[in-house]
Amino acid sequence: MKGLRDAPALYLGFISLHLLLGHLGSSLVYRLRFGRGPLAYRSTGADSAHTRLTRRISGASLVWAGSVVAALWPRWSELPWGRPLLALPPEVGWALGVLGLVGMLAAQYGMGATFRIGVDAGEAPPVLHERGLHRYSRNPIYVFSYLYLVGASLWAPSLVTLGACAVLGGLFHGLVLQEERYLSARLGEAYARYRQRVPRYL
Prior knowledge:
0% strand, 61% helix, mainly alpha, elongated, 6 helices
């Protein structure tokens, strides 16, 4: 199978699907299904700490994407921070990436009206979603989204790419901890029982 440099449009096109489908597409589908958008971080009651962390994720994502694009430049791989650290067939990255993207979209769609992007403390108490993939993981969207990033990182496994991927994992975890505190405060005992029954990630 051709690698990143041999078929850049294919690889970069797939990478763009995370933004186009996972963010823009999911928001559009949600609006068509329920007549309103899921963007809680734009509301007046949005949690400022959660929003700041989301912005840091956007910044780290730009670094990650930039390092993948830089891998198309042959001289990038000659630099200490651009040199590939692993030698894996591209099929490995494709398998993880496709599984991650499909799982993320399935988890978002399966949440139905409870899906939100951001945290809005001014909203009515959220409804606890325990069906679908949320029966096996409390955070399947983050799990599959990160699996996607890991898979795509293996196409250009430089120090910068893998480092940015690791930073994104840490930032995702920070978001999860913030959301857990929010849900614990709003849902009380029901969320406590859910936490005991279902693992945070896997």
